[in-house]
Amino acid sequence: MNSLLQQKNYLIGSPQDIEALKSTEHARVLVVSDVHGKSGILINIVKQFGKSCNALVLCGDSTYDLAELLEQGNENKDFCDFIPPVIVFIQGNGDPSTFPVSFDIGAQNPNANGMLKGTVIVPPCQTLEVNGKNLFIVHGHHQGVDFGIDRLAYSMKEHNCQIALFGHTHVPFNLMTDDENTKNYFINPGSCSRPRGGSPNSCAILTIEKDFCDAAFIKILTPLSNNPQFSIFTPN
């Protein structure tokens, strides 16, 4: 269960859970992007997959929906049990740099000193260490992902990361490259609410082991229903 506290590094979760991710032998990361106000879809995704995952990553344009997730988690402990122990999120081109919640989420975050109680700070990018691998999380608009991943690859390398998680295009994407005997992964889960290019409403689950990394893409059928169905698919 997530502690629902934002730390100095802007991750939400306890320091113990964040530290444990660094050496977890088998980690599952739930990756969602571009929710765009359809928070019910995000909540249903978390109810379906959250308990089996070590972290939730939101790749932007989802702050309103994260706020709703946090409020429900704070008010309903049964629902909070579904929320992965670590939440990572970043600012999309449609997101503010801060947003409020009704509880003191920043009590352990010195960067929130002087801000109104309950302020969540939304960073433009984030890194996360999982099982010895470094993840680089951005929305992608600053890296021009509409036109390719070259700038994203450069930024990822600058941050000493091997896995890039991004959104913005609303199209699922999965690519592995081999750079000087180092495997690099570029993963966009697509949009769970506003898919483009003929793609389905989707999210992804990233599995990370010591010598293995793989992304399973999940199609969300009837996403606006109270009981959506899910199935695995392969992006074009």
Spell out the key features of this protein.
single chain; 236 residues; alpha/beta; 13 strands; globular
* Total strand segments: 13
Classify the helix fraction into a percent range. 10-25%
Derived structural class = alpha/beta
- Summed up, the helix count is 5
Strand fraction: 25-35%
Question: Major sheet: order of its strands?
Answer: 3-2-1-11-12-13
Shape by Cα distribution: globular
- Taken in chain order, the helices and strands follow as HEHEHHEEEEEHEEEEEE
**Rg (C-alpha, Å):** 16 Å
Quaternary state reads single chain
Instruction: Provide mean pLDDT, rounded.
Output: 96
Uncertain runs with pLDDT below 50, 5 residues or more?
none
Sketch the major β-sheet.
6 strands, mixed
Termini separation (Å)? 35 Å
Describe this structure in words.
The chain has 236 residues and is of the alpha/beta class. The protein has five helices and 13 strands. The strands form three sheets. It has a six-stranded mixed β-sheet, with helices on both faces. The chain has a five-stranded mixed β-sheet with strand order 6-7-8-10-9, covered by helices on one side. Helix 2 (39-49) links the parallel strand 1 (27-32) and strand 2 (55-58). Helix 2 packs across helix 3 (63-75). The model has no long low-confidence stretch (mean pLDDT 96).
